[in-house]
Amino acid sequence: MISSNTVLVPVDLTEQTKEIATEVLNIAQNFSWAIYFVHPFSQEEISSERDPDQSMEELLTSMRTIFSNSMIQGEAVQGDLSDVVVNITATEEITLIILVHDDIKNLQYSTVVGPLSSLMEKCSTPILTIPDINKLKNLRHIGLMSSFHPSEIESLQVVDDLFNHLIAIIAFHIYTKNAEQVNAQMQQWELDVAGNVSSNNFKFITYHADDVLSGVESVITAYHLDLLVITSIAKSFIETLFSKNILKEFINHPLITPTLFIKCS
């Protein structure tokens, strides 16, 4: 049985997995996360010399020795990455899914975009994509891209809870025109948030830019954001604006990462 407040981390059990697992557990200690590693494997791997179950047990033993006070579980499961993860989140209480780019690229996908798109369609669990696990070592500021939608208020609460109320969260909106109207909307949304979420960790800003993507870049730089949150509401808005796959734009962008995707109810 998986414990509550558990973070699910798919791994491919290659040489670099131990290093990535160590960094994930270092981060987990800061926010009281339990970690559940899962290794989705194919029929071809069963036929190879490597035993998935044995490899997972070796990883768990190693991590439990280093992090004796942490709750660490894991299993190897035959199947496609997205299907395995969706099945686990459907039956267990998973707080967060972490996809470390370098450690899932061998799991039947050439890029992280494939499994992320599939997971966002099939499950409601927040998904954190990380190109480099070291980028989360000194997490201090989180930015949430807002469209002033009521559902995004719950997303703010989710993010604050997820990081154990320890990280400053900046809710921001990028606009290209109608400054007065946008600022009035932000003021009203801030009041709506205050009426529904009890936290002192939030800051609210509007930012003028020529386009949304350059605006996000500027906010990340100006406010030293270590992690960007994109809700499904904001994702739909941007995709409508750009008429393109925003997942690929943001995941592959050298600045706008790590990225946390939250599906609004």
UniProtKB/TrEMBL annotation:
Domain of life (superkingdom): Bacteria
SUPFAM superfamilies xrefs: Adenine nucleotide alpha hydrolases-like (SSF52402)
Stated name of the protein: Nucleotide-binding universal stress protein, UspA family
Taxonomic lineage from the root: Bacteria, Pseudomonadati, Bacteroidota, Sphingobacteriia, Sphingobacteriales
